[in-house]
Sequence to fold (901 residues):
Amino acid sequence: MATVFSPYAWLVPAFPFVAFAVLTAFGRSLSRTGAWLATAGTFLSLVLSLVIAIERMTGAAEDYRGGYEWLRIGDFSLPFGFEVTNLAALMLVVVTLVAFLVNLYSLGYMKGDDRISVFFAYVSLFTFSMLGLVLADNLLLLYIFWELVGVCSFLLVGFWYQKPEAKAAAKKAFIVTRIGDIGLLIAILLLFWYMPDHALDFVSLHNVFDPQNGGTISLGITTLIALLIFLGAAGKSGQFPLHVWLPDAMEGPTPISALIHAATMVAAGVFLVVRTFDVFEASQAAMDTVAIIGAFTAIFAATIGLAQNDIKRVLAYSTVSQLGYMMLALGVGSVPGAMFHLFTHAFFKALLFLGAGSVIHAVHTQDIREMGGLGRRMKITAWTFGIGALSLSGIPPLAGFWSKDAILAAALADRPWLFVVGAIAAFFTALYMSRLFFLVFFGKPRGEHGAQAKESPGVMTFPLLVLAALAVVAGFANTPWNGWLGQWLTGNAEADHASALAIVVSVAVGLLGFYIGWLVYVKGAVRRDVLSSRLPGVVRLLERKYYIDELYAWLFVRPLRALGDALTAFDTHVVDGAVRLVGAAANGIGKLNTRLQNGQLQTYGLAGLLALVVLVVAIAGRRFW
Amino acid sequence: MSMLASYLTLAAVLFCIGFYGVLTKRNAIIVLLSIELMLNAVNLNLVAFSKYGVNPALTGQIFSLFTMTVAAAEAAVGIAVLIVLYRSKATVNADEFDELRR
Amino acid sequence: MLNFNIDFTGEFFAFFLLSVCAIVGAVLAINFAKVVHMALSLAFTFVSLAGLFILLQAEFVAFVQVLLYVGAVTILMIFGIMMTKHQDEEKARSRPLLETLAAIGCLCLFGILFYAIRAASFPLPAAKLPDNNTLEIGKLLYSAYAIPFELVSVLLTVAFIGAVALAKREEEKP
Fold:
């Protein structure tokens, strides 16, 4: 059955782009209408994406490639095209759905902001970039959209640029991800150099790195390329050690946090690894690196999440941790697991962020110690947030359980010790999510705003409800006894790593974590400061995020700043000094000439005499040296 | 070592003194006189060469005669110009004549 | 280089005396305070130079020198001084920078000239001047140098008329 809608896939990113263009051109005069326009554009994209995805699910599964030639350099031609695969179709749906809900939510959240049309223009551009990245059919085009995504995140994180923290966070996000981007760029250049015919499209990549015709590119180069690509992915997806920008990006408006953390920015890194997975598969060392970094990031960020007091920062570290899970899944060779977790994570993390935004909207603070007792006042937010938290903690039968279970099962089958690490991280995840949930919604109101908190308007709660529903049901797309999503994505019906042990352990750690959280923060059976009083050093270490920021400041920022200062000093004193010297010399000669031109013949005569002497000495005196 | 070098040295001394006078004296009449002194030093050279040169001839003396004539003409015109200037500016100080600057 | 092995002949003695007179006159002309004294001191130098011309067997030139410089130019200058009612006194050292630089420049120039004179080698003259110089000059002036002579006379006339015209025109103005 021939595909009908896939040739029109390019329209999916086109709608948000048109919205962006219109908003940029006429934003000032549109204001409120512009916001609705952007939302409508995203909605059209969502509808088209759904149509494409449904069409592909029901039959027409062959990949569609379209586009035109962009550049021709000698024999090398660079296409400007798009490719619709099942993976791309899934990503289209996820991105457009989250983007649409975020747009809808922002209509309420950003109401009254002076620059609302600018905000929606940025969001549209962000959506456009991410959709273009998903559809790109070669690495160079992907890289262009990759950078566009980076720019948009910079613009949106620093949207409230009046706040110095927001400015700093935007700069940090941009610079840190740039380190990863350079890795990706070098990887692309290496691929361009080593690939036959300099092909950069994904189909060629797949063919060249296929184990059956291996040896086209040596193992060392393959590992190098894979690691460089992973560096780019780590920068975007906030993997250790480039995770530092992601929590700081919380300075942006909350809907943007949801968009960045759920659908666009951080998903781009995982998506990149999935897209170039053939390269990784060709190198065992690269796979090991990805798995170990992923596992380490998962547990590392989860422990930090335990000690944070900012509601959005807790969620940010949970995102870092969950992205670590996805990388872990990729490292142990389970693309379906990673994509499945990306898919479910997009829903419940967007849900959690939007719920957090709803809470912040109500109480005007982000410190969870000043919240509490909001459950009775904000019923919808509390219920949906609770579903999201349970889903993230991996409690069955919610979505997060199935995807996390898939990852853990894959890890158990591949390397058992990674499974242990993942299980411990899952326990911490449940613990900090229960802490967050109980502190915010249970107990008595502690802050001054808590008592008067009101439920958010319908335009904000509607996305919460939609996402909550998805967070419940999305997991059934790929259960251990029904690997439909995995088959649909990879195209082969390989047996999933269904494992009773994995299910039991993940359920157990999830429930245990939640139970301990309930004991500590609701029942009070264990005193809250039992840990901080016994081990103040550990708690402090976690609160300060393992001093990574301080370490980077000491290791990189200060030497670079010193170098910059030295170069500035060189510039102001040596370079500018030389320039000033030239200027002063010309000025001095001019002044001397002015004094000389005083109209008196005797002065002119004197100058002539001196010139004659100099001339004679210069000409006749040459014979003496 | 002939007398020629002595004459030439004397002429150089006089020439330099005359030049110094031209450059430093404020009174324009003395400046004119210093110029005459320089011309005279040149005349001395011409006459000395006419006797002690390789080919002694009267040409040098005739040349110095012409020089004197021209110097006399120059002195006459110079004095006339100075008088005109004096009428317009009421001074003969060389450092107050700075029309060249305008 | 400076080999002063000079025969103390009568000519040299006369040269020495006259050159000292010329230099002293010139130096005094530079250093006197009154303008009239300067002019007279320069007249003394011109007379000394006339003596030197005689030593050089240029009697006619010496005669013209006395006639022209001492008799005409110096007197003309003194008339000029009187007519311009100068500030009689030369103001002492009013432009130190100019004077210092001029002194240095002139000394350097003299050094160069002196070095050139000492470094040059002058071959001995191949012949002697005729005894009756004046006669020979007269012959030359009216034969070989007739045209320059006439031109110089024209120049003198023009200068004379010009000087009169210059000095006179301003008088008619008021």
In short: The two ends of chain C are 65 Å apart (CA to CA). The first helix of chain C runs from residue 10 to 31. The mean pLDDT of chain C is 84.
